[in-house]
Each structure stands twice: as C-alpha cells, then as structure tokens.
Amino acid sequence: MGAGHAHKLYRHGHSPVHALPAHCKIAAVFCFVLIVVSTPRGAVWAFGLYALLIAAAAVAARVPAGFLLKRLLIEVPFVAFAVLMPFVAEGPRIHALGLSLSESGLWGAWNILAKGTLGVAASVLLAATTELRELLLGLQRLRMPPLLVQIASFMIRYGDVITDEMRRMRIARLSRGFEARGVRHWGVLAKSAGALFIRSYERGERVHLAMVSRGYTGTMPVIDATTATRTQWTRAAALPLAALAVCLLGWTL
Q1: Using CA atoms, how far apart are residues 27 and 24, in angstroms rounded to an integer?
Q2: Residues 184/189/195/200 CA torsion (nearest 10 deg)
Q3: What pLDDT score was predicted for residue 4?
Q4: Which of 94, 149, 114, 99 is nearest to 42 (CA)?
C-alpha cells in the first residue's frame, strides 16, 4: 500500500467529499446502508428521500449522473432475480396487464430493487471519491483485521498484474496469427491458462521472498496515519444522520 493505485471507479476531483478522510466515508456509507436495510419496505416514500440524499452527495462530490448510472449496471443480475420473484413466489395473487403476480413477490422484488440500488449507489459514490490506496488505509484505520487488509491489497494488485500478463499473452498469440474461432482452438486457450497460472504462482513466490528478505514479518508498516477532525466527522455523518431521521419516520408514520 506504499504507492498510489488508481482504479476505474475512481473519478479524480477536488470536491469536499474527495477531501474527507477515507475511514470517515467508509463509516458513513456503512451506516447509511444499515439504515436503508432497516427501513420497512412499505415506506415507499422513504426510499425516494434516500435517493435524493444520494443525489445530493453526488452533487457535492461533483460526480456526473451518467458516471454514477453507468456503474450501477453491476446490479443487473440482481434486477433479473427480482423481476422473476412476482412470478415464482407463493401467496395471494393479483392480476395486472393480463399477468398473475404474487403480492408477496412484488413486495420482495421492490425490497431488493430499492435497497440494493441504494446500497450499490452509495458504494459506487464511495469508490468514485476515494482512491484505492486510501480505501485500504481507511479500513486499516477502522481496525479491520490487518490480515484481511493485506489480502485485499495483494488481491487487487495481483489482479492488475495477471490482467496485464493476459494482455501480453493475447498479443503474442495474435502476432503468431492465432485466432480462437471454434472448439478446436480450446486446447491452445487451455494451455495459455495453465501457463498464466504457473507464471502467476512463480511471481508470487518471488515477491514473497523479496518481502521476507526486506524484513516482512506478517504485518505491513503504516506509512502515513491519517486522522480526522471533528468537523470532518460531522460532515461525513450528515448522510447517515439524515437517513436515520427518514428511517425513524418510516417506522412511526
């Protein structure tokens, strides 16, 4: 975690949200998601207010709506599952547009779509305003088990290494006139996958030996200890506190 590491979800900026310490934003998003999940599904208006809160945070972070909506496509598999629920769920049924739909299935689909979309939107907004290195340091600052932080750090970095290795192997195959056009080419692709696994394993062994030779004992040194002021915590808490007020109204009204 000693060097900067950009990721595709991050959008460089100098907004007030970007300036907040990572651990403040992680805690705020975590509390916001818990509050959204705790909201009764029948309080439909509450989820509309949550969406407005996310939109306000996106405006404060200067994240365009198109950027946010494009990255919400990651939840498409969950949307497909939710769409099927009214057809396969049991219980009292209602008829709409010539279709027989389960009432409990409709509520279940709404519950998944509303809460899932808000959770994904908050997570995307967090990733868009926080560099990957800062996210890992923020988790470390929040006292997440160091081993899990190290595993996440190595996984992300080696993911990029392996992806780059795959790109070079693909270029090498193309330079030799190879194009996978059918089942008869699967053997070549299988051999490439095997070679990629061996190269990745050997690289991991070399990196581990290099780390041990430099004094690695199972813990990563903290290069910069980021602290947050009371003002920064207050700004980060604005989102979950507003959501908490909406949630309490949803349970009482």
Answers
A1: 5
A2: -160
A3: 45
A4: 114
